[in-house]
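Quick start: load a record and inspect it. Here is Ribosomal RNA small subunit methyltransferase E:
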Amino acid sequence: MNLFYQPLIGENIHHLDEEESRHCIKVLRKRQGELIHITDGKGSFYDAIIVKDDPRQCTFTIKHQSKEKEKGFSVHIAIAPTKNADRIEWFVEKSVEIGVDHITLMDCQNSERSFIKTERLKKVAISAMKQSIKATLPEVSGIVAFHDLINNHPATQRFIAYVDASNPRHLKDEATPGQHYLVLIGPEGDFSKEELEAALALGYRKVNLGDSRLRTETAGVVACHTLSLINL
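Running the structure step on this input writes:
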């Protein structure tokens, strides 16, 4: 099934934008009267019939609306952006496919990058949402300073993934199902001792993600997958 995205469908915008229209009509060769599937990225799927097969503005009429099943938990990954932008894009793509709800880019003391184009990451997230047939677009937040992020976060369970041989507690053993999670993933140089101590002082739990030493983007995917698995 091919899924199209129109975030304003709930506001009676019954046409696809130019990029989606071109893909629908030029690439997939959909024609007037054919059924297409659309999401608003806000939890709803729509079955629609093409009214005008214009590759610049494909119009449609809605036949049926359904809601995505609620998960009963949420996953927020705060991650230091990688030096290579392609690697953080890979993380966004895979974590959205798995089921992340919120991604925040985090500026840490050892960060390799302090600027990244979030608009590009949002496009990657939209593509991954459609690819994995999901109806909820995760939020992608621009770079936030570590200390601003860790204060007053509403997550019910908060973790900091830290590379430490004396840290035997795995995320899968510390997290409990049905919670709102926040996991902090540091840069290649890891969090500083000051950052670790600040997080622990605020009630964050230090966890590991397995015996292997992981790249930043891989750690983010592992954390997201682990939390999804314990909620099956």
